[in-house]
Amino acid sequence: MLDKRTLQKGLKTKSFGRKLFVFNSIDSTNACARTLAEAGAEEGTVVIADFQTQGRGRLGRTWISEPGANLLFSIVLRPSQMEIALLPFSASVAVARAIEHLTRHRAECKWPNDVLMNNRKVCGILIETTMTDEDRAYAIIGIGINANQRTFPSSLSAVTSIALETGKEIDRSALFKHVLREFEEIYRTIQSRSAENIMSEWRTRCSMLGHRVIIRSHDTTYEGVAERLSDDGGLVLLTEAGEKTFYAGDTTVISS
Ligand code: BTN
Q1: Taking 90 as the threshold, does the pLDDT of residue 102 lie above it?
Q2: Cis bond before residue 67 (omega within 30° of 0)
Q3: Which of 166, 176, 237, 255 could be a cystine partner for 212, CB 3.0 to 4.6 Å?
């Protein structure tokens, strides 16, 4: 089971994870982080749980995770409008770096914000933002990493875990600390207006660009070549009807 002392021991961050709320079971760490953010929680506050009863995924899906096997946590940030567009890329690069650092196995990024090992998803990221009241504006970065789960429902064919890919259990507390450290460093970099290195690292980690893909977005399917990212983080697809930019959806590579 996760415990606060171990999660914070040797944590090399200034603010990320310094305020930490640890639960055995919770509805959703994103929901809890949101409540804390509404109440004024400071930037870097983290909520982590061993199990979620109502874990949320992207596009209104649920996120199901075996109790005590994985990493499920959410970070409260208070980014500017410009930084918001960079958060999916920043968070997925941070997770990929942390996985590689601890396992020496390659981790890739998939648009918009998944992390893959051997073409299967090991991490999903759900970013929920509000900009309604400038003083209270916040973003919740919810990160679910399949760490040590060994079996998944057969309906989830393209899903894996770090343990399945490396053949070894991973220390969840160490992984948590590495992700926070990398993410804080990247976040400070984008705050100082130098996003180009992060975006170029994301591109080198994304094998989809230049390939033919199918994208399902708002109940419609499109096909084309994933050309590039737009300046605001959209995926630009070259379809038969010309270029089209997507800001949400699920992508599948169909040819190399
Ligand atoms: C996705 O659909 O790929 C995003 C999944 C995000 C899941 C994480 S687990 C921790 C946090 N709390 C939630 O309810 N969801 C995110």
Answers
A1: yes
A2: no
A3: 255
C-alpha span between 134 and 79 (Å, rounded):
10
Which of 243, 208, 206, 205 has the alpha carbon at shortest distance from 222?
Answer: 243
**Contact indicator for 253, 211 with CB cutoff of 8 Å:** yes
Q: Is the CB of 62 under 6 A from ligand 1?
A: no
How far is residue 247's CA from residue 230's CA, in Å, rounded to a whole number? 10
For residue 54, which atom of ligand 1 is closest to its CA?
A: 14
Would you state the pLDDT for residue 157? 80
| Tokens of residue 95, six digits | 């997770």
Q: Is the pLDDT of residue 156 over 90?
A: no
Q: Residue 102: how many CA atoms within 13 Å on its side-chain side?
A: 23
Phi, psi at 14, each rounded to 5°: -85, -50
The whole-number pLDDT of residue 133 equals 59
How far apart CA 239 and CA 243 sit, in angstroms, is: 6
> Ligand 1 test: best mutation among 36, 75, 111, 126, most atoms within 8 Å of CB?
126
pTM for the whole structure: 0.95
Reported confidence tier of residue 232, pLDDT bands at 50, 70, 90: confident
* CB distance 58 to ligand 1 below 6 Å: yes
Q: Distance from first CA to last CA of the chain, Å, rounded?
A: 42
